[in-house]
Design a protein that fits this description.
The structure holds two protein chains of two kinds. The two termini of chain A are about 40 Å apart. Helices cover about 65% and strands about 0% of the residues of chain A. The longest helix of chain A has 25 residues. Chain A has one domain. Chain B has three helices and no strands. The termini of chain B are far apart. The chains are: A mainly alpha, B mainly alpha. Chains A and B meet through α6 and α8 of A and α3 of B.
């Protein structure tokens, strides 16, 4: 009875939302046409990368900031320091994980490089790197992370810092993150490279810091 | 037209069904597996909508990393149950 009422209520709400959405007037600004018109000055030829890293670079910078903040909160809440139950060392699984992880690193670099011209880019490449780290951890090759050392810390922050430094260096022009036309392509590649490293480490860290001592805390 | 339309309808139905099953299932492990299935079906839907960027991100982050985190959480919860 209660479930039925909830389902009917949710369906009515969804129907109202859809009706409201269909009522909206078509938007006055045609964004795809604007992107197409300005694509030659963006430094890349793929429209999605152009929007993410150039036209709306500010959003992407805040995005990596939010991810970094999430990881900092995970670290602040505290990682478990109980003894790890030794994972079953299956040599077949470990060999396969090592093989797959090296291929995944190759795919990540390809995705990063291909992002300028076709679907791909820093976020996808970083996610593939993080997945490789999680795979290695689950296979028992890579131990869970405890306290991040100096190298790991700088890697985690590199993406946001590089983005911030580029933004600061370009601030003298008067506009935030407006790349000079000649250097746009290389600046975007630099930022994407740092973003890939940081995203891979942050996403892997969300898994590897949290899975420290499974069930061993009281 | 007919084959692609039939595929799209099947995909939409499978998406709704897996989402519903993931929500109402009593067994959390099954719910997580259904969530991963839902993520992979959503990847297909994004690919059908000609948005390969989002499909890549969804497959890697939505289905892969989130699914692994949820499975890890279940493992931690069950480990806690065994040795209180």
């Amino acid at each position: 009875m209660k479930t039925a009422a909830i389902v009917i209520g949710a369906a009515a709400f969804a129907a109202t939302m859809i009706a409201a959405l269909l009522d909206l007037p078509p938007s006055a600004i045609h964004l795809p046409r604007l992107v197409d018109a300005n694509l030659p000055v963006s430094g890349v030829t793929h429209p999605v990368t152009a929007v993410l890293l150039n036209f709306r670079g500010y959003d992407t910078m805040l995005e990596i900031g939010v991810l970094l903040l999430a990881l900092l909160i995970v670290l602040a809440v505290g990682t478990h320091d109980g003894a790890d139950a030794a994972p079953t060392a299956d040599p077949m699984l470990q060999t396969f994980a090592r093989l797959a992880a090296s291929l995944m690193a190759l795919v990540a670099v390809y995705l990063l490089w291909a992002g300028a011209r076709q679907p791909g880019g820093a976020f996808q490449a970083g996610a593939v790197l993080a997945a490789a780290a999680v795979l290695l951890h689950l296979a028992g090759v890579l131990p869970a992370w405890r306290e991040p050392g100096a190298l790991l810390r700088s890697g985690l922050a590199a993406g946001f810092l590089v983005f911030l430094f580029v933004a600061m260096a370009l601030l003298s022009q008067g506009t935030l993150l407006q790349y000079p036309h000649a250097a746009a392509g290389s600046l975007i590649l630099l930022i994407e490279f740092a973003l890939t490293i940081s995203l891979g480490l942050i996403l892997a860290g969300l898994f590897l810091f949290l899975s420290g001592g499974q069930g061993s805390d009281s | 037209m007919t084959i692609s339309l039939a595929f799209d309808l099947l995909l939409a139905a499978a998406l709704l069904w897996s989402a519903w099953r993931a929500l109402v299932n009593q067994d959390t492990f099954r719910s997580v597996i259904l969530f991963i299935v839902f993520g992979l079906l959503l990847t297909l839907a994004w690919a059908r909508l000609a948005a390969p960027d989002i499909a890549l991100a969804e497959a890697a982050i939505g289905a892969g990393l989130t699914g692994a985190l949820l499975l890890d959480a279940i493992g931690a919860l069950r480990g806690k149950d065994r040795q209180p």
